[in-house]
Amino acid sequence: MEFEDVLEASKGLVREEMGWSEECPEVDAIDLAMNALRVLLANPEASFADVVREHYSDSGVDEIKAWWSGWGK
């Protein structure tokens, strides 16, 4: 299995077992983590801002963080 296929399969496994729709915020958080993994594999010194620039060019760091404001606090 190719790396991207494994990533997508792991996301699908968690999403299905948790009963989450594709549009729920938890799945967005999984996507963010997957994108961070992709960026860090290419550049281990990358920052969160680098992930946002590469995968969320229409949004800024503060906007991305606001998607989950209050989670885990």
Which percent range fits the helix content?
55-70%
The average pLDDT score comes to 92
Radius of gyration: 13 Å
Report low-confidence residues grouped into runs of 5 or more. Answer: none
Helical segment tally? 4
Shape: flat
Order of helices and strands: HHHH
Structural class by sheet pairing and helices? mainly alpha
Strand content: under 5%
What's the β-strand tally?
0
State the end-to-end CA separation.
37 Å
Assembly type of the chains comes to: single chain
What would the keywords be for this entry?
73 residues; mainly alpha; 66% helix
Brief summary of the model shown:
The chain is 66% helix and 0% strand. The protein is mainly alpha-helical and 73 residues long. The relative contact order is 0.10.
